[in-house]
Amino acid sequence: MPAPSRSAALVVLCAGMLMIILDGSIVTVALPAIQRDLDLSPASLTWIVNSYMIAFGGLLLLAGRLGDLLGRKRMFVAGLAVFTVASLLCGVSTGQDMLIAMRFVQGAGGAMASAVSLGMIVTHFPEPRERARAIGAFSFVGAAGASIGSVLGGILTQAVSWHWIFFINLPIGAAAALLAVRVLAPDQGLGLRVGADALGAVLVTGGLMLGVYTIVETSRYGWTSAHTLGLAAVTIVLLAGFIMRQATATAPLLPLRTFRSRNVTGANLVQVLMVSAMFGFQILIALYLQNVRGYGAAETGLAMLPAAVTIGVVSLGFSARLIGRFGERRVLLAGIALLVAAIGLLTRLPVHAGYVVDLLPTMILAGGFGLAISAVTALGMSGAGAADAGLVSGLFNTSQQVGGALGVAVLSTFAAARTRALLATGHDRASALTGGFHVAFGIGTGLLLIAFVLAAAVLRRPRVPAARAAEEEVPAASPAA
């Protein structure tokens, strides 16, 4: 495929993903307005977020495999179409049942499109340097999109109404789908005759959906309740059954050989830890700004904008060059080290924090996520063969969603527990909330330190052919030290 066509394809893939990523955060800012307009209970309100997350996280792996079988371009375009139509129906919803149902459909469409996106980048950009730049741009969309969504959600909700946080998807989705038909390279897929492993699909989709549901509901039931432990046990049974099925199926949905690659397995584990800390950071710092410092929705989004800008500059301007010069592993370790410093600073966040002194340094150091996510994505996808690129892409996106849900649930639960304990001992609300955030940020820092150790011990720079190694200025046979 000529370079201009590859560039157009990358723009389309990034535009589609930006729309999907934005939707994950743009809704959270509008929740109070939705609650007032539709007269929702707190439990119903949480399901506007959770129904999307459960569908998205639960269907990614299945969607990735179907993309390999039916064609990734076909799956991507279909996903954009489903997401766009569901956005329209979300926007015109007049009651909670319709809105929650359409949010679930949105999550399904988002899973269909995002599950194959990385696989398409791998096939469209076979050269290492070009692929590194493409993954850097794609990673920027994922890393910065959530912060941009917070800003945009606040502006649209205050200036027009919450309905427009969904309507804004219509022109973006329609344009991206039409352009995708024209610019993305066609692929036929392996065909359903290879086998879709229906039983495996039921087991893993049910297990992932139930697992994500169990995680997000811990904020309501707690980690040690009969509800949580019972559903966790069923989740383990379903996922164990899936693993057994993959070991014996003629055409498994997720061949266990995929995990023989230390980079695929290690990168997914590192990403779960890293995303857990960063998603938790994003939610908790927004709560701190609003509940402790008294910021409004739009102000909160603007306060977090420097992090999005820094991540964008690092992802687009430096990550590919640094990966080409030093290798994915070293860049990943440097990025995680910056994140450890960023979240570690928040463990000393005062109640009456000054933005420039106490928060801006963290927002700037968060740019390390632009390095880390680009490098870990490149390492994770390096173990994917042409036939399994969609599957590994779905797996990688699945670990990201599970990591995000786990991080928000774990950090929020511990923050709330510490806050309750401080309130019980006579602390005022602001200091009790801040104390809870300190504990959560300490746990986030610990997760990042574990990710650093795991990355250093397990991950290695992919070996490349000698001809390409010369281009990269790195010896082909020697993994990064």
TrEMBL record:
Membrane-spanning ranges: 7-33, 45-63, 75-94, 100-122, 134-156, 162-184, 196-216, 222-244, 265-289, 301-319, 331-351, 363-387, 399-417, 437-459
Membrane topology: Multi-pass membrane protein
Chief location category: membrane
Record carries keyword Cell membrane: yes
Gene Ontology terms, MF aspect: transmembrane transporter activity
Keywords of the record: Cell membrane, Membrane, Transmembrane, Transmembrane helix, Transport
Highest taxon listed in the record's lineage: Bacteria
Protein's UniProt keywords contain Membrane: yes
Alphabetical list of Pfam families matching this protein: MFS_1
Entry-linked Gene3D superfamilies: MFS general substrate transporter like domains, Multidrug resistance protein D
Compartments reported by the entry: Cell membrane
Major facilitator superfamily (MFS) profile domain ranges (all copies): 9-463
A Gene Ontology cellular-component term: plasma membrane
Protein name: EmrB/QacA subfamily drug resistance transporter
